[in-house]
Recover the amino acids of this structure.
């Protein structure tokens, strides 16, 4: 998971500070030495680390202690604030044309996930009311056009293709005209990449920039390449000028050095992060939320947003009515489980729960076991009849034996599922019963 190693180290350091009623300058110096090593091991740029540690030390030594915080908590607050500043302070949003038609040009080295990111970005824009079109302008890489067509189909987004034209600028210009005619309001341009930055690549991109006059040039970099990603960002920005960064594969980078270095080194904000292979696994980058995740404080806002994306008001009210009537069934329980899968699974959700994040109380083995249990429980419920799912009270010994044979699971697993369901029903009834009606995040952590 992203930042796993760094989060482990930082939380260990701050645990020592929390236990002290008074912090001396020596205590702060020792903690900052450990923070420095943790950041360097996370592959954060050396100059960035040096400036970060110096700033934290200066503020920690001169800070007035807030009435509600002990000295250790005050240092943690300073570190969090500095992490937020390091990554850009605020969420940097896309710029759209006031005239109604926006061109976004995605650039980057080969292998960073640029083509897939085009589809993810299209899906993100559609959720926000836009009507995007993709255009295939990589005329060099074998099967690049085919790949974009597959991605476009997956994102339910039209793709402009001209297999006979070898001039990417001409392709993009024709695509822009067609997009306007068909009522699309955003054109996402998938450009060619190289294995390294070279003059030929930059010249082509400069020509495209001149012809298209894109509202934003977004650089796609691979977080797992660490400082090589940051160096690539510097090269592209100096040669072409970019408006923002999309960092892919952040979920697979346990260090996170590229994400922590990119803004400081390039001056350009990270606008989106890729957090999975699926086409909906693109998130707007919020520096404050990411800093909280790194320090094990969770990210409740993103968790609620993800839940609300897949749980609208009508569904929430229907579930509430069921709970008030004590009519929450195994079918509803199965539906809740499927929503967790759509939100990214247990691991991604736990990463956002305060105190249970990347280096919190939940072990990887527990997460893996939870994911496996999900699959088993789905198999069990799918082996039940509709009547059994609607009325689990009828599940006598013979029915449970039949279900066990059909699902390939032991009867003990079926008993465990029914117990979890009963506990979940009780908790949700309490949850729905308190407070005012309205949208609530579904209770799925059982």
């Amino acid at each position: 998971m992203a930042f796993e190693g760094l989060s482990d180290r930082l939380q260990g350091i701050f645990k020592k500070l929390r236990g002290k009623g008074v912090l001396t300058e020596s205590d702060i110096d020792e903690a900052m030495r450990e923070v420095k090593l943790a950041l360097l091991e996370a592959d954060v740029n050396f100059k960035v680390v040096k400036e970060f540690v110096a700033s934290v030390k200066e503020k920690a030594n001169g800070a007035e202690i807030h009435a509600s915080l002990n000295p250790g908590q005050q240092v943690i607050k300073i570190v969090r604030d500095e992490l937020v500043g390091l990554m850009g302070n605020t969420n940097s949003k896309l710029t759209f044309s006031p005239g109604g038609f926006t061109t976004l040009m995605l650039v980057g080295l080969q292998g960073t996930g640029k083509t897939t990111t085009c589809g993810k970005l299209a899906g993100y824009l559609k959720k926000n009311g836009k009507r995007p079109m993709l255009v295939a302008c990589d005329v060099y890489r074998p099967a690049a056009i085919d790949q974009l067509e597959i991605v476009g189909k997956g994102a339910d987004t039209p793709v402009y293709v001209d297999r006979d034209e070898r001039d990417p600028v001409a392709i993009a210009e024709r695509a822009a005209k067609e997009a306007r005619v068909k009522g699309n309001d955003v054109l996402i341009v998938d450009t060619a990449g190289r294995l390294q930055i070279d003059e030929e690549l930059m010249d082509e991109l400069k020509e495209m920039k001149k012809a298209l006059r894109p509202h934003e040039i977004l650089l796609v970099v691979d977080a797992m390449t660490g400082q090589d990603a940051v160096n690539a960002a510097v090269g592209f920005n100096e040669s072409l000028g970019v408006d923002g960064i999309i960092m892919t594969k952040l979920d697979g980078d346990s260090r996170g050095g590229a994400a922590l270095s990119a803004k400081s080194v390039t001056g350009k904000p990270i606008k989106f992060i890729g957090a999975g292979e699926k086409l909906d696994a693109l998130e707007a980058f919020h520096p404050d939320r990411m800093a909280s995740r790194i320090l094990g404080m969770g990210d409740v806002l993103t968790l609620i947003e993800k839940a609300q994306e897949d749980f609208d008001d009508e569904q929430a009210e229907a579930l509430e009515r069921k709970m008030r009537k004590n009519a929450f069934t195994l079918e509803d329980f199965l539906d809740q489980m499927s929503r967790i899968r759509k939100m990214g699974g247990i691991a991604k959700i736990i990463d956002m729960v305060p105190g249970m994040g990347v280096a919190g109380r939940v072990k990887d083995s527990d997460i893996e076991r939870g994911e496996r249990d999900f699959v088993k429980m789905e198999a069990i419920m799918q082996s039940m009849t509709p009547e059994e799912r609607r009325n689990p009270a009828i599940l006598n010994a013979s029915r449970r034996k039949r279900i066990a044979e059909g699902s390939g699971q032991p009867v003990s697993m079926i008993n465990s599922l029914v117990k979890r369901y009963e506990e979940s029903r009780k908790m949700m009834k309490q949850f729905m019963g308190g407070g005012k009606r309205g949208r609530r995040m579904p209770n799925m952590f059982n």
About this structure: Residues 10 and 409 are 42 Å apart (CA to CA). The mean pLDDT is 82. Strands lie at 102-107, 132-136, 159-160, 186-190, 216-222, 244-248, 270-274, 282-284.
